[in-house]
């Protein structure tokens, strides 16, 4: 595979759906001119995210979209030869899902529904039930949404399915219980970066992590989009402001180099790992995303 340019976007996308589509199309056009091969938008690019994690009211939910509707059709038409991942609220048979879709001008390449649901998100959203990698023009790819990347098993499942690149789409807010005066000092800021680097290093894959910026309801989003190499090194980042983190990489060469001596996937000992808790878990006091 030749060298490719990976792009992770940090940006603010709200409830105005036509504006979200127009803004996304403009970003796609600019990224294409800059030679981006894989562009990862934040989660909830089309219509925004929840305004609160605890007891979100139905009237404040994002618009739920038909996956065959005009919004994604417009995104696919703009994509052309580019591979891109974008997140939205999907409506299927009366159920809402937090969904990420990977597509190009040729159509849909892969779909992921968010599996792990923090706080009260499950009141209004169904949960996905699997992690699957799929082939794209930039290599084999898998997707995570938000809280999914907190759990090592999520990215590991994708890596075992052959993913070379993990696209982690987020609408990840600052702490809602212990908010810091400055976003870089927020505990969720630290965890967001830690998870990106850990998931890349432990699986020896590229992680392309996007995130929302700005404010939606009571949530203030972190930004911090980044491209992480298979050794856990940050190759490009936006910090807390909007922008595009870009890195030009040779995926096959870099993955082979990272696994030349220590190959984490090959050297696993799955027969020694507990798959269920051996002791009762402690009472739940609130998820890490709070």
From TrEMBL:
One of its GO terms (molecular function) is acyltransferase activity. Residues 262-271 have a biased composition (Basic and acidic residues). Keywords: Acyltransferase, Hydrolase, Transferase. InterPro entries: Aliph_Amidase/BUP (IPR050345), C-N_Hydrolase (IPR003010), C-N_Hydrolase_sf (IPR036526). Residues 4-251 form the CN hydrolase domain. PANTHER family: CARBON-NITROGEN FAMILY, PUTATIVE (AFU_ORTHOLOGUE AFUA_5G02350)-RELATED, NITRILASE C965.09-RELATED. This is Acyltransferase. It comes from Dietzia psychralcaliphila.
